Amino acid sequence: MKKYNLTYFTVLALILLTTGVTLAAFTDKASILGASFSVGGSDIKLLNDVAVGTQVENLADQIPGPVFTKISSDWTKDYLVKIYNTSAEEVMLTTNANYLTTGDPAELRSIIFVEPIEWNDSNSDGVADSGELGNSLGKKTIVKWKTEGFDLGVVSGGEVKGLLLRFSTDGVGSTKQGQSAVYDFDFNSITL
After folding, report:
1. CA–CA dist 130, 179 (Å, integer)
2. What is the secondary structure of 124-181 as a DSSP string?
3. How many domains does the chain have?
4. Considering the domain boundaries, does residue 107 fall inside one?
5. Helix (H) or strand (E) holding 21
6. Which of 85, 90, 109, 139 is the most buried (most CB within 10 A)?
7. Cross-strand pairs, 156
8. d(CA 65, CA 81)
9. Is 43 exposed, middle or buried (0-12, 13-18, 19+ CB in 10 A)?
């Protein structure tokens, strides 16, 4: 019986060894080397001069903000801005105010409103002419502009989004007299 088991295991080992060598003799490998992946991105720019096109020298990541003085009750002032999607992809635009509360000790941010209005500068003159203003995207205090922001919609690659930012107040109390504040306005894009 021992001789039978030894013969059986010897033959089995010999078969497995022969099969393994045979399989090893018929294997091969192919490789794909250096696969490269590049993620698309969104890139938006502001136009320095809204009356000039999208030439490289007119594009900027940051531009100086407006200076508003003599703000009083029922005050309104408009500010035009154009945002250019330099990428080839569609992007979703949003905007938020950005500030430190130490830069606004009198809390003017709670009495100043902003209302983004879509602007199609059809004659490219940089002026909001009659018939060029579209939908209002809502009206919020600068506080709400910071915390909630505005959805500005989708902008296709190579397109310009024009906006008229209408700043206003309803009332300005006497405790606000002589006070000032500085705010930044950020425009953000997400590739779709």
Report:
1. 35
2. -SSS--TT-EEEE---EEHHHHHHT-EEEEEE-TT-EEEEEEEEEES---GGGTT---
3. 1
4. yes
5. helix 2-25
6. 85
7. none
8. 10
9. middle
Instruction: Report pTM.
Output: 0.80
Looking at residue 88, its amino acid is: A
Tens digit of each residue's pLDDT (9 = 90 or more) over 77-116: 999 999 999 999 999 999 999 999 988 999 999 999 999 9
Structural domain of 184: 44-191
- Smallest Cα–Cα separation from 64: which of 52, 48, 53, 79? 48
CATH at 69: 2.60.40
For residues 47 and 121, the answer to whether their CB atoms sit within 8 Å is no
Q: How many CB atoms lie within 10 A of CB 103?
A: 12
Query: Burial of 113 by CB count in 10 Å (0-12 exposed, 13-18 middle, 19+ buried)?
Result: middle
Residue at 73 is within a domain = yes
**Amino acid (one-letter) located at 8:** Y
Count CA atoms within 13 Å of residue 93 on its CB side: 27
* pLDDT tens for each residue of 37-51: 655 667 999 999 999
Q: Is residue 70 part of a domain?
A: yes
